[in-house]
Amino acid sequence: MLMKTFKLNKLTCIRTVAHFILLLISSHLFAQKTDKFMGEIVNYDEETVPTYNLPDLLQTKGGKKVKNVFTWEKKRRPELLNLFEENIYGKMPNSFDSIKFKITNEATDAMNGKAHLKEVQITVWNKGNSVSIPIVLFIPNHLNKPAPTFLLINNRSKRNTDPTRIEKSTFWPAEMIIDSGYAIAAFHIGDVAPDRKETYQNGILKQLFPEQLEMDNGMKAIGSWAWAASRVMDYFLTDKDIDTKKVAIVGHSRGGKTALWAGAQDERFAMVFSSCSGSTGASLARRRYGETVSLINKQFGYWFNNNYKKYSNNVDSLPVDQHMLIGLIAPRPVYTTNATQDRWADPYGSYLSLIHAKPIYELYRQKVMLPKDMPQINIPIINSAIGYHFREGAHDLNVYDWTNFIRFANFQYDQ
Ligand code: GTR
Asked: What is the pLDDT of residues 187-239, one digit of tens each?
């Protein structure tokens, strides 16, 4: 008995010490005000964020003040879309020869009868070549009407969206979403443009739009993934089980950047959810906190067009900043997230983007209920046209995030 107590105590002791060491390391890491990465100093100190001037969302290139929705939609919005195309994500080709949809597998009693599974292959042709993009889609059986839908841009393993449901994942908690009365779909970015600098061309770029690779403003990987999201939307328009007025696009990290860009361009997406998108996603470039334009261009240059490289060491001359990307989604609801352990994605800079995008939502008389200061950890802002949460934990998309996405969508759709 004594022996057992001693063993237990020893174990508890080791655990406590290990825990203490972990705490020390992590508090040291999180207290650290700078870091070094790829030969650059990474800033994690609010005190040393430089003063910066954001380009004005509401002033046209010609210097005209935007005072109403008409001028915004006719003048400033197209101007801004063009600036993002030219300088960051690349111009998306607006035509191709043809598109075809084929159901490759179907089960009306998936998830123990709860859902209708459709595996669909989208094939797009251009100039004699074609690319096929598979999608997985579950539609709830308990709804007697077309289903509002979440579409995930999957940038992680395909196992996350296992159609057989043998594997389940918190990254795409399909059962939970079906129970909440939403359809859930996903496509994988690797089927569109491989996520590697050596091979990203070997998808739609080489096959369908080789001219894009020659252009300094041509789209690269993120543009390609956003293009594919729009093709899934093309499919939804042919599926009577989908409520095409209620399709939300969802992405995490690089997928989160893509979701914002897809939602900004394709107004058929009713709502955008962007998880931990960070640099060149929701966070303001000019703050130079965490991952900078220079670092993202060095590590992931193949995500963005060639022109973006010009701003690596000259971010103040970028004619846009990321609050404008959020503004391009208005008046449609948008929800972004950050995580406490993900300083690399500059949580505060992402929140500021939302604050600075607010004037466009106000032009449309949408209610934005964002507090001036960064919201507290795990206190989501749901009842607002722009939603947000700052979650405890790591860079990820998880059940906490999805739970709040559903709450936000329920509020917007009044369900
Ligand atoms: C990081 C990258 C981020 C983010 C992330 C991800 O390494 O620096 O911009 O996109 O990858 O996609 O998980």
From this structure: 999 999 999 999 999 999 999 999 999 999 999 999 999 999 999 999 999 99
Element of type H or E holding 351:
helix 347-363
- Asked if 126 and 269 sit in the same domain, the reply is yes
Are 154 and 188 within 8 A, CB to CB? yes
The verdict on the CB of residue 291 being under 6 Å from ligand 1 is yes
3-class DSSP state for residue 111?
coil
Do 144 and 16 share a structural domain? no
Tell me which residue range forms the domain holding 21.
2-31
Q: Where are the beta strands (DSSP E) in 127-241?
A: 129-140, 147-154, 183-188
With a 6 Å cutoff on the Cβ, whether 279 touches ligand 1 is yes
Catalytic residue IDs: 253, 395
Asked whether residue 157 falls in the same domain as residue 281, the answer is yes
Same-domain check for residues 66 and 86: yes
Residue 36 forms part of a structural domain: no
The span from the CA of 226 to the CA of 127, in Å, is 21
Q: What is the pTM of this model?
A: 0.93
Give every CB contact of residue 371 below 8 A, 6+ residues apart in sequence: 381
